[in-house]
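To the wet lab folks,

You asked to see what we're planning to order before we commit. Fair enough. Below is the target structure as C-alpha cells, and below that is the sequence we designed to fit it. If anything looks off to you, flag it before the synthesis order goes out.
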C-alpha cells in the first residue's frame, strides 16, 4: 500500500488550530485588567472603567491626569487626538480566570465574522468586479498588451509595486487594502514570467515593511507618539533611514529569489502548485492570443484602475474605512457594467460568480478575527503587558531597547491593532524609558518594529488571508520568508541599539 504524502493543512485548519491553542492559553495565563480611561466630549469628563467593568466619571482636568499618573497634556484628549481607551499606569489587577472552553471556541468564529463583516463585504464586492472584468475579457487583453511592453524589463514591475505599497504602508498603514491587488496583479506577474510567490512578496512585503518602519502613519506612529507624550517628529530622520535600508534589504532579497527561480524553475517554493495557480488565474488567457483590446475593455480597466488612487486618497486623507471603500468599488462595478455593454443578466451572473470565488478569503478574515476574540475574552493581554513592564524596569539602555523590541513582538501576536496596542501599552511602557536613561522614541521604534516583525509570520494577521486568496499554503510562505524574517529582526535590533547612542 502506497504511503499517502503529507499535505499541509488549509488556511482554515491552521486558523482553527491556532484558535484552540489560544483558548488553551486562557487557562494557563492569569486573567487581569488595567483600568481604562476614555474622554467623553459631550460631558467633558474622563470615564474610567475599572477591572470589574464598572465606570466612574471624573472632571477632564490636568490634575486628574496627574493623579492617575498619565503624563500627557489634557489637550491630547480634548482635541480628540487620543480617542481609544487608555491604560492607567499602576492599575493592573488580577480578575477571576476567564478560560475559553468548548462553547466559546464554537461561538468565536461567529463573533469573528460579525466583527469582520465590513472587510468581508469589501472582499466580496471586489470579487464581483473581477468577475465582470474577466467576463468581458478585459484582463486577458490588457495582460497581453502589457506583457509585450515589459518584455526584458520584468523586474521593474516588482520594484514599482513593492515601492508604491511600501510608501502606502509607511504613510497611512496600507494593509487590508492590499487584498484588492492580489487578483489583479497575479495574472500580470505570471505572464511576466514570475512565480506566484514573487507577486505575494511584492505586495505583502511592501505592506509589511512600510507599516513596520512607519514614518508618519497616523494609525501607529502618530498615535503611539501622542500616547507616549512626545511629538511624532522626534526620531523621524532615523526612522526614514531605517525604512530605506529595510526596503533595500527586502527588494534585494526578492530580486535574488527571482533570479534563482529564473535559472531553475524547480527552485520556486510553489513549483508543485504552478500548474494549479496558472489555471486559477490564467484560465482564459492564451499566450499569443489575438484578443482585441477594444475601447470598452480599455475604459473598463481604466475605471477599475482609477478606483485605487481614489481609495488611497479616501483612506489617507478622508479617514475612510471599509464601508466607504466597499461603496466606492460597488459604484465602480455599476459603471463598468454600463461601459462594457454586458447584458444585465450576464453582468449579475458574472458578479455573483466572481464574489463566490472569494468566499473562502472572506471566511478566512472572519476566522482570523475569531482568534483575537478568544484572547480578548480571556483577558490575558493586560497580564502580559504588566509582566513585561516589571521585567524591563531598571535595565541599561542597550538591553532595555532589545527587550522592548522582543516584548512588542510578543504583544503584537496578541494585540493585532496597531492603534490599540499603542494606547494600551504606551502609558505603561513610555515612562520606563526615562528610568533607563533613553529617549521615549526608543519605545516608539521598539513598538513599531516589534509588532511589525510579527506581521511576517503571525497567522492572526493578514498572512493566511492573502495566502488563501492566492491558493498557497502557510508552510510555503514560511519557507520563503523566514530567512528574511531573521535578517530584518537582526537589522531592527542593531538599529535600536544604535538609536540608544544618539
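Sequence we intend to order:
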Amino acid at each position: 500500500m502506497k504511503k499517502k504524502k503529507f499535505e499541509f493543512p488549509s488556511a482554515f485548519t491552521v486558523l482553527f488550530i491556532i484558535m484552540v491553542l489560544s483558548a488553551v492559553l486562557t487557562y494557563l495565563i492569569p486573567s487581569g485588567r488595567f483600568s481604562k480611561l476614555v474622554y467623553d466630549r459631550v460631558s467633558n469628563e474622563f470615564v474610567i472603567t475599572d477591572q470589574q467593568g464598572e465606570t466612574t466619571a471624573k472632571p477632564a482636568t490636568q490634575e486628574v491626569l496627574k493623579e492617575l499618573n498619565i503624563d500627557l497634556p489634557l489637550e491630547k484628549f480634548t482635541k480628540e487626538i487620543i480617542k481609544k481607551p487608555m491604560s492607567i499606569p499602576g492599575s493592573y489587577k488580577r480578575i477571576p480566570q476567564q478560560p475559553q472552553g468548548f462553547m466559546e471556541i464554537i461561538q468565536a468564529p461567529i463573533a469573528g465574522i460579525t466583527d469582520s463583516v465590513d472587510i468581508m463585504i469589501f472582499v466580496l464586492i471586489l470579487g464581483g468586479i473581477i468577475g465582470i472584468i474577466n467576463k468581458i475579457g478585459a484582463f486577458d487583453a490588457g495582460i497581453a498588451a502589457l506583457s509585450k511592453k515589459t518584455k526584458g524589463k520584468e523586474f521593474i514591475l516588482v520594484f514599482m509595486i513593492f515601492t508604491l505599497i511600501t510608501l502606502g504602508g509607511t504613510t497611512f498603514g496600507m494593509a487590508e487594502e492590499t487584498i484588492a491587488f492580489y487578483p489583479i496583479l497575479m495574472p500580470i506577474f505570471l505572464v511576466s514570467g514570475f512565480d506566484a510567490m514573487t507577486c505575494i512578496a511584492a505586495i505583502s512585503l511592501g505592506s509589511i515593511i512600510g507599516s513596520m518602519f512607519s514614518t508618519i502613519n497616523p494609525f501607529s506612529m502618530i498615535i503611539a507618539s501622542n500616547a507616549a507624550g512626545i511629538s511624532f517628529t522626534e526620531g523621524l530622520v532615523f526612522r526614514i533611514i531605517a525604512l530605506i535600508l529595510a526596503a533595500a534589504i527586502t527588494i534585494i532579497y526578492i530580486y535574488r529569489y527571482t533570479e534563482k527561480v529564473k535559472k531553475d524553475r524547480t527552485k520556486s517554493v510553489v513549483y508543485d502548485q504552478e500548474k494549479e495557480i496558472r489555471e486559477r488565474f490564467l484560465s482564459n488567457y492564451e499566450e499569443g492570443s489575438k484578443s482585441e483590446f477594444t475601447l470598452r475593455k480599455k475604459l473598463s480597466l481604466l475605471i477599475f484602475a482609477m478606483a485605487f488612487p481614489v481609495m488611497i486618497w479616501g483612506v489617507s486623507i478622508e479617514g475612510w474605512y471599509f464601508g466607504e471603500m466597499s461603496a466606492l468599488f460597488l459604484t465602480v462595478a455599476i459603471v463598468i457594467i454600463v461601459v462594457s455593454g454586458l447584458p444585465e443578466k450576464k453582468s449579475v451572473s458574472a458578479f455573483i460568480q466572481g464574489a463566490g470565488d472569494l468566499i473562502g478569503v472572506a471566511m478566512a478574515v472572519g476566522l482570523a478575527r475569531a482568534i483575537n476574540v478568544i484572547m480578548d475574552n480571556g483577558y490575558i493581554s493586560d497580564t502580559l503587558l504588566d509582566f513585561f513592564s516589571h521585567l524591563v524596569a531598571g535595565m541599561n539602555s542597550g538591553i532595555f531597547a532589545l527587550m522592548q523590541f522582543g516584548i512588542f513582538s510578543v504583544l503584537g501576536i496578541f494585540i493585532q491593532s496597531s492603534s490599540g496596542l499603542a494606547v494600551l501599552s504606551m502609558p505603561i511602557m513610555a515612562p520606563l524609558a526615562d528610568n533607563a536613561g533613553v529617549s521615549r522614541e526608543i519605545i516608539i521604534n521598539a513598538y513599531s518594529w516589534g509588532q511589525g516583525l510579527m506581521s511576517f509570520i503571525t497567522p492572526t494577521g493578514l498572512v493566511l488571508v492573502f495566502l488563501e486568496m492566492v491558493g498557497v499554503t502557510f508552510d510555503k510562505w514560511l519557507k520563503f520568508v523566514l530567512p528574511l524574517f531573521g535578517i530584518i529582526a537582526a537589522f531592527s535590533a542593531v538599529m535600536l541599539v544604535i538609536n540608544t547612542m544618539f
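Structural context that might help your review: The two ends are 66 Å apart (CA to CA). The first strand starts at residue 32 and ends at 33.

Thanks,
Computational group
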